[in-house]
Amino acid sequence: MASIRDVAKAAGVSLGTVSNAINRPEILAPRTLRKVQKVIEDMGFVPNASARNLRAGRNRVIGLVVPDISNPFFTDLARGVNNAAFAAKYVVILCNTDESSEKESQYLDVLSAQNVEGILITPARETTRALASVTEKGIRLALVDRPALGLQACSVAVNDSYGGSLALTHLYDLGHRSIVLLTGSEDIPQVADRNAGIRETLNEIPASDRPNIIELRLDSMSASNAYSAIMKKLESGIDFTGVICGNDLIALGAIRAFREKNISVPEDVSVIGYDDIDFAGSANVPLTSISQPAYELGYAAAELIISECENPERHVHQRVEFQPRLIVRSSTAPTKSHRATLKIS
Amino acid sequence: MASIRDVAKAAGVSLGTVSNAINRPEILAPRTLRKVQKVIEDMGFVPNASARNLRAGRNRVIGLVVPDISNPFFTDLARGVNNAAFAAKYVVILCNTDESSEKESQYLDVLSAQNVEGILITPARETTRALASVTEKGIRLALVDRPALGLQACSVAVNDSYGGSLALTHLYDLGHRSIVLLTGSEDIPQVADRNAGIRETLNEIPASDRPNIIELRLDSMSASNAYSAIMKKLESGIDFTGVICGNDLIALGAIRAFREKNISVPEDVSVIGYDDIDFAGSANVPLTSISQPAYELGYAAAELIISECENPERHVHQRVEFQPRLIVRSSTAPTKSHRATLKIS
DNA sequence: CTGAAAGCGCTTACAG
DNA sequence: CTGAAAGCGCTTACAG
Question: Is residue A89 part of a domain?
């Protein structure tokens, strides 16, 4: 590889002059500058980043650690992070942990060995120790979709509790009073928070009018699991008019089960999803869903950590919270009795 | 940040000894080694990567440039790249170009400024010049899902022409003789290759028995576009029994249109998708599709470029080609006349 | 087995 | 405006 010394020799100037041509072109005599630039161009010279970074004491690299990049939520998040980084001339190392906390801590070591300036992470449960040791090494941290739990770090999140509340309120307003909650394990913080939001909202409703909630837990939040769960539930008849789903795939699986049993959505049963995946709007029954601003979340997280890297002393840790939004499509409708009521009034 | 010099001072040894403790622990006296390791541990010391890389002349960083990380194909590809890199202790910088060749060339500059050792890229059309200049700078290249076009580079690809052939042969074997080809612009190389595969296979069939192909082109390969295109096509009646789709979303959109017109899939019309996305198996009508080994593609590409980085002189450029696979589910079936024929024989 | 020294490629005061 | 020199943090022969 050509070095700055080769360029200097070829251009007949000193080594410092070449460096100035690259970093402070305005202080060179125009003729000298042109001469040097031409040689750089001709040789295809690119300064050695390691040497530059060694001098500068920084490298404009950040790491992004996610549990599952195949999940559309994290894909969008990654896009947001990338675009924010690109705009600030930073670069992102992507680390996909496949939900394994062992792999997560290995990746943290890799990133620290790379001396990244900051790490954006949606940590697995119980990895606060590994994270604390990262911050001790002077690497800045921003937590995505998780509370900071006493760590010196910024965090960005979606208000999941509000998301749960949105879903329940929507069905409640449509007159639903018996609702299936079809979701995953409460070990998943997002699931727990949404359920908490649902319970809270429930308690604000006078007991006489309070919807009855039937909880069904899925091992894995997939369409096929949801299909089976609803098929099984329907064996004992149908004692509900609405379903709140943990994500859109669950909603699609549930709708398939209803259709197979000739139960019409939304005439007989309303179904609401979560995440508002790309496909939600093009489904057979376009899905009502809760949209999470994953891209914005990633963009904001990257901006936070980059601003911390650029201005460590002036930086104050903060928590940014985004609100999910209800997207109403065709999979939810007023209950029959509610429609009747509406006609009367 | 602590440096190797601080560690040496704290441990009461020379600077070279600390370095040896890190890089060649076996040559130190056990007592000295333990002493130094303890200090390293206590201080949370991490060697400066820039300095190491400057000495070593390499940094174990590769770049991955993709047009759209939201596309499940590229998401899976990225997972493969990441896992291969992780296994080889490399790290991946992710670059998402949003299909813009301007952004692509900016990213190439960024990556070259970072002095990555290699770049994996699915290039936009007409960027061979930018790529050539990258290789001139001594950065190794591997092309993903594109021919190398005279570049000094390895390449990995899926045999798209064979994929097209698989789809056509499947419908042909089921007795379909009038088939709609619902796909995107031939400017997209994959689309062009698949269509070429279809035409080739067509020509191998005796003219008397050769299926009639009706081509419909979509501006954008989305479910809603496909829905509209099929709705419009059906206005003039139904003169086909099968549909070959450019991707699974198109297939899902088409099926929705058929259902709305009370045309049953697969009894009246067979529909075959492409990509075998996660959701294909859980759709209302589980989709027959062509599966592309995206993860494997990424893994192989990363392995190729890493082996080139590790052994530049022994390396020989190569092209690795993967075969797509036909995944038969419930959206395709024999035509009615074919079923009759089967009964007779 | 340990320690002093050279050098990786660059940037930036500093003297001219 | 130009050029010689120091030093960023590390690794690795080399002498002891």
Answer: yes
The DSSP code sequence of A135-181 is: HHTT-EEEEESS--TT-S-EEEEE-HHHHHHHHHHHHHHTT--EEEE
Is B64 among the domain residues? yes
Q: Which residues of B touch A79 (CB under 8 A)?
A: 69-70, 96
CA nearest to B248 within chain A:
A279
Same domain, B184 and B303: no
Indicate if A340 and A219 belong to the same structural domain.
yes
**How many CB atoms within 10 Å of residue A167?**
28
Question: Distance from A136 to chain B by nearest Cα, in Å?
Answer: 7
- The Å distance, CA of B329 to C1' of D7, is 67
Structure tokens at B212: 């009639």
Instruction: Show pLDDT as tens, one digit a residue, over chain B (345 residues).
Output: 788 999 998 999 988 899 999 999 888 888 889 999 999 999 989 999 999 999 999 999 999 999 999 888 999 999 999 999 999 999 999 999 988 989 999 999 999 999 999 999 998 776 778 888 898 888 999 999 887 777 889 999 999 999 999 999 999 999 999 999 999 999 888 899 999 999 999 999 999 999 999 999 999 888 889 999 999 999 999 999 999 999 999 999 999 999 999 999 999 999 999 999 888 887 889 999 999 999 999 999 999 999 999 988 889 999 999 999 999 999 999 999 888 776 665
How far apart are the C-alpha atoms of A134 and A95, rounded to whole Å? 15
Range of the domain at B71: 59-152+294-322
Q: Is the CB of A16 under 7 A from strand D?
A: yes
Taking the CA of residue B119 and the nearest CA in chain A, the distance in Å comes to 14
Scan residues 113-132 of B and list those with Cβ closer than 8 Å to A.
113-115
Residue A186: CB atoms within 10 A of its CB come to 14
Q: How far apart are CA B18 and CA B7, in angstroms?
A: 7
Strand, helix or coil at B40? helix
Binary contact (A259, B113; C-beta < 8 A): no
Q: Is the CB of B28 under 7 A from strand C?
A: yes
Count of CB atoms situated within 10 Å of the CB of B89: 10
Task: Look at residue A6 and give its three-state secondary structure.
Answer: helix
Which chain A residues are Cβ-neighbours of B279 within 8 angstroms?
Answer: 223, 249, 252, 279
> Which nucleotides of strand C come closer than 7 angstroms to any CB of the protein?
1-5, 7-13
**Both B192 and B309 in a single domain?**
no
Residue A52 falls inside a structural domain: no
- Chain B, nearest residue to A222 by Cα: B282
Q: Are residues B339 and B204 in the same domain?
A: yes
Distance from CA of B44 to the nearest CA of A (A): 6
